[in-house]
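Hi support team,

I'm opening this ticket because the web form for multi-chain structure prediction keeps timing out on my end. I have pasted the exact lines I submitted so you can reproduce it. The total is 222 residues across two entries, so I didn't expect it to be a heavy job. Is there a limit I'm missing, or should I split the entries? Thanks in advance, R.K.
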Amino acid sequence: EADIYQTPRYLVIGTGKKITLECSQTMGHDKMYWYQQDPGMELHLIHYSYGVNSTEKGDLSSESTVSRIRTEHFPLTLESARPSHTSQYLCASGGKDTQYFGPGTRLTVL
Amino acid sequence: SQQGEEDPQALSIQEGENATMNCSYKTSINNLQWYRQNSGRGLVHLILIRSNEREKHSGRLRVTLDTSKKSSSLLITASRAADTASYFCATDDGGGADGLTFGKGTHLIIQP
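Hello R.K., no limit was hit. The queue was backed up. Here is the completed structure from your submission:
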């Protein structure tokens, strides 16, 4: 098991709420990533970070934002959740040779 | 845009049989990786093959890469019930965004 954690595992909320998905890793990796995955579909990169104070947008446009104040912590925030944000969000760390994934947060917006 | 595409989308075999999954991609790559995802969980890295390699082994896994056809295959020998999962290929195309590009995956079911 990789030392990368995500909370919550499941979240059901109403439209318009602000949410933050937490991701932390204890492997000391500089690079961290957020992917979005719909059921039975491929993963899409939405955000990544090279290290502290570095954040970049990925291939898939997302209304979410991220921050990287500490090496081990890479939270994702949605200011106003909508039903279209319903998906699974996977956090990863590592590099292009190997990425270590957290268990994911399954988000449902009603 | 989607880079890797796995084939078949789903595969069901008996325990003990071999399972083969294929992946095709569109652009040139630095490496290709295979990941396993158990239901409701994150992905686990299985094996990486670099663009200058043609075949690689790891335990019961065998991966081949044909850069001229832009395709890869993953063979799992002597399958076990615990191998039931979705398998994704992922490519590093050396592009600007520093993540991997994943295919849609093959859902493998091993029947006891």
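A quick check on our side: Chain A touches chain B at residues 2, 4, 6, 31, 33, 35, 40-45, 48, 50, 56-59, 90, 92, 96-104, 106 (CB under 8 Å). Let us know if the file doesn't open in your viewer.
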